[in-house]
Write a structure and sequence with these properties.
The protein is mainly alpha-helical. The chain is 45% helix and 11% strand.
Length: 84
């Protein structure tokens, strides 16, 4: 198990995992949506996802907390190119 993982309640699925990155507790988008839909079963899943995205935008102020590793790989490819 990831040494930075923190349990929330009793996780039953990987989507329930919470990790600490740069001092901020994070979890997967799909896990958040799953938990909210379980707690608000009458809500439209599209609406729940839209609410989560709006909250993310308000929280993040445009700066991502985590990135797919492919983003770093792509940045390296660009930075490795000679300046023209």
């Amino acid at each position: 198990m990831d040494e930075n993982a923190v349990e929330v309640g009793a996780p039953s699925r990987p989507a329930d995992a919470v990790h600490v990155i740069d001092g901020v507790r994070v979890t997967s988008f799909s896990g958040v949506v799953e938990r909210l839909l379980a707690d608000y079963p009458d809500e439209d899943p599209v609406h729940v996802e839209a609410v989560v995205l709006r909250e993310w935008e308000a929280f993040s102020a445009g700066r991502p907390l985590v990135l797919p590793t492919a983003v770093e790989e792509g940045a390296r490819e660009i930075l490795d190119q000679p300046l023209v």
